[in-house]
Predict the structure.
Amino acid sequence: MPAAFPLLKTGAVLQYPAVKTTQYSSFVVRFLDGSDQRYRQYTPALLRWNIKLSLLDEGELHALEQFFASQEGCFGIFSFVDPWTQTIYPSCSLSQDTLTYQVADLSQGTLSVVVVENRT
């Protein structure tokens, strides 16, 4: 069973403003007469969540850092709950292999990660 993306101490996954994108993949074949033919490379749309967190305390930063390390960057697979629909996506990954965060004070950490849905 895959791990789950960690929650903040408020029980939320992310903070607002938040960004969620939907990605389709189409392939276009262009012919010599100028016409074209289009088809999808994969049927379902893939989702991507840009998670930007601020005002994190040490515990929240540590939990996210441990989660990132356990996933080995974008190598791991985990489940993610879409905060808009409460749908559980069982096969998601991080989009980066480097975690960068800043700490200004005990309760002023900032962090940004991107969660992407995997094709199953």
